Amino acid sequence: MEISETNGSRFELAMDRFRESKEPIFYKGISFHLKKEDGSLECRIQSTWLPENVTESHAREDFERGKAVLDSFAKESVEFSEVIKDRKVIFSLIDDYGMGAIELCRISGKGMEWSEGYPQNRM
Hints:
Layout: E1 2-3, H1 9-19, E2 25-27, E3 30-34, E4 41-46, H2 56-76, H3 78-84, E5 89-96, E6 101-108, E7 111-114
Parallel strand pairs: 1-2, 4-5
Antiparallel strand pairs: 2-3, 3-4, 5-6, 6-7
Helix pairs in contact: 2-3
């Protein structure tokens, strides 16, 4: 559910669905998912580059943007902060092309891991 504020009835509904792992929250261009399998928080960040042009440097810039949004969301909402506290966080860089999305790479406890075939541009 997309939200633009961290209060009000829409936010409360979004948090209820998010807490139950029923629906992600979309906030400031980032989607936040609670994974049922392991309870981790996955932050999906739309790449600012086409998949064929993504480099490690580009990916790191997008991940920094995603981390900044996560930090600001947690600071603005005590409720969100409490739900995500002590969870493993995975940042996933995606290309959402409308009919679906592909993961280009991710950052987890293992560092940056590229999906097969990426990066195509190694500059």
